[in-house]
Amino acid sequence: MKRLRVLHLDSGTTWRGGQRQALLLALGLKDLGHEPFLIGSPGSPLVERARAAGLPVAAIPMAADWDVRAARRIRARMRAWKVDLVHAHDARSHALAMIALLGKNEMPLIVTRRVAFTPRSVKIKYGARVTRFIAISRAVKDAMTSAGIDGSRISIVHSGITPKGSVHPRDWRNELGWPRDSVVCGIVGAMTGEKGIGLLQDIGAAMAPDARQRTRVVLIGGQATGPTELGGVTAYSAGFITEIDAAIAGLDILMHPSRTEGLGTAVIDAMALGIPPVAFAVGGLPEVIENEISGLLVPPGDPEAFARQVARLASDPALRSKLGEQARLKARTFDAARMTKETEAVYHDVLSG
Q: Quick check: is 21 in a domain?
């Protein structure tokens, strides 16, 4: 197949799931013999990690969706790098790519959408100028088609993770002085409202007293650090952690109370390490978790039901082991190499007309 020169755009200033997927894709394409280029925000983790990996990178400030100055600089890089297509990985870079490509109707524009809610500005941003959309789950595609976007213009490519090697679990009990017989639950990711952080107090308060006494919670992510309390449950905010696999491997249960989720790579990461998840059945999570097989799904927005399922797992080591083993097997289907090959197929399909 033709060697492709692909320009990846991502305006993110922090390290979240979208930035991780953009980097994994660029590196995967390089391994396949293509030439990926990347434009990101100055000083962003994505730019720094891409540079460290040896990718051609440009750092361009992207102040707003319709930042004409940024679009001009993107257009100049696009011309200098002589790219075959442009792939925008977030909403802002989507808008900027459309400006940068004005008058270049022959240049394909691929846009990845990672959120499972109905898009706005459909006539402007989701019109014919976008050659193909990539949705990271069926739930994301369904949200797009419900807004009137033609499903034939949307390809589903699930996000992927890299295989987990040998991981030495972090000993949270010893580190934090928690009882050896306590059950350590963890929340992983951005500590934001959309990730359900506001529900943790309600979930803790809904637990039966014996389950509340047995359970400990670690919050992995965000900026806060130190001891805390969640509805009567002893907890600890660990903040951002570099050695994330070891931190997750030290958990007994993953709590994922997200209100909305495009797919949930933090959940896949935990499953790959054999950690059974409890999550609300929202967005793409039912595509990741098979209820009662590789984890437990809870009706959306029901903290009492969530608390019952956490307590159930906390009191049943055999069930944790059973679900954890199946979770590990399920996670293998979400592979970064597969994600790269499927995205490559989208590129070739688009370029073939």
A: yes
User: Do the Cβ atoms of 239 and 223 come closer than 8 Å?
Assistant: yes
Q: Is residue 48 part of a domain?
A: yes
The count of structural domains within the chain is 2
pLDDT per position as a tens digit, 40-49 = 999 999 999 9
Give the structural domain span for 177: 172-331
- Whether this prediction's pTM lies above 0.85 is answered by yes
* pLDDT surpassing 90 at residue 121: no
Q: Are 240 and 223 in contact (CB under 8 A)?
A: yes
Query: Which tokens sit at 16?
Result: 């979240």
**Cα 144 to Cα 33: distance, rounded to the nearest angstrom:** 32
Q: How far is CA 225 from the centre of its chain?
A: 23
Cα gap 178→302, rounded to integer Å: 28
| Token pair 């906390």: residue | 314
Mean pLDDT of 222-249: 94
Min mean pLDDT across 47-51, 117-121, 174-178, 317-321 is at: 117-121
